[in-house]
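**Backbone description:**
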Amino acid sequence: MADKGSPIGVFDSGIGGLTVVREIMRQLPDEKIIYFGDTARVPYGNKSQETVTRYSEQIVRFLEANQVKAIVVACNTASAVALDELEKKSDIPMIGVVKPGAKVAADTTRNGKIGIIGTEVTVSSGIYSRYITKLNHKATVIGKACPLFVPLVEEGLLHDAVTDEIARRYLSELIVTGIDTLILGCTHYPLIRSTVGKIMGEKVTLVNPAYETAMELKELLVRSRLLYSRNETESKLPNETLHANEMALEEDRYRFYVSDGAEKFKKFAASIIKYGFLSAKIVNIEEY
């Protein structure tokens, strides 16, 4: 049975969800995190809704087996097409990354023209458009699928001429529409935020849903009475127990699992979240 001291589960199709983990670490520094990156089956954005849902259900079962107290679906594609089904089959509180980003975009736009870039599935689902227009009836949402961004990021080509050229080709279609706000609708995309921002220009506000997701997670934990505070817990402990618990917590606070390529993931994760030594274990997710 999960309690306040149980970890938060976060999953993504690969390494992109680490941008969400980074924000959770910043905003909720006392919380423990278990992250799963489905690196063997990335990307999700070119797969069917049925396949993405099946993959996501397997990962949720893995996180449930690790007794997480809440789950963040840090993959825009899975949030768009699988979240409703996941919530039906699990009693664990769960949030995705779509709604927080949509809300900020609806509140931020000045001219009502909002762009969304993401995977094929995320864009074609129309989920961002539905959320945004509910919040801002006058808004116009223009979507553009950018399927090559994920493999470019996964290969570490964050500042590369190839990435620059692909980005220009994708984003040129959005520039002419006159949007003033652009949602980075895939957790991989903040890792090439500087490239996107340079091409779109300073008049276009970029929305990164990672921060808003972390803040919504905090609100969810408060509502569910699951928010963990080290100060609250430690004030009740004798000094020797406190010291032992601190040592154990530091060693066990952040755990990372992948379905393939643990060494490559570990190297990339360390460059993104800047948290000392990280380990990553391979899990056969098909067993779940």
